[in-house]
Description:
By secondary structure, the chain is an alpha+beta fold. It contains three helices and four strands; from the N terminus they run αααββββ. The protein has helices at residues 2-59, 68-76, 81-94, and strands at residues 117-123, 128-134, 139-148, 154-163.
Amino acid sequence: MKSRIFMYLFIFSVLLIVFQYVNSKNIIDKYEKDIKIFKSKITDNEKEIAELQEQNFELNYFNIDRNEDALTYFEAQGYDTDQLIPAIIDGLYAMNDYEGEEHPIVPYVSMTDSKLLINKVRVLNHKWIIANFTDGEFWGEIFVTYSIDENNDLKYKLVEYFLYPKVVG
């Protein structure tokens, strides 16, 4: 009787070991499959990140923050570019606060009940700015030059402008 109990225990132990082996093998295979999938996704994401970084670099090419010559120009004149560049941008945005119908720098009058407002400004270098404007329905862009006079006042001069035609549809 004792030998039968040992035989049953042995068979049960072998079955338990086989079950554990199969179960562990399935888990390991699943983990290896997941690892391969994640490695593939990581590789794809790294490629996409590299492409986006290159695209970002290209998009920011015409930006004063990346233009060492323009920054050096201001620094040579004794200006702190960390304060000057936001002041240049804020000067254009401050023009959005105007009375009447005519914007101080945008050469168009609003064709809606809203005022024309400058939305986005990009300082290209130490002389040029590009900005877009809208009245909520019509959009356009302006090309502006700027300078700093002897009293350290910013002077803006409109060089070129256009208004996108309204698309009917």
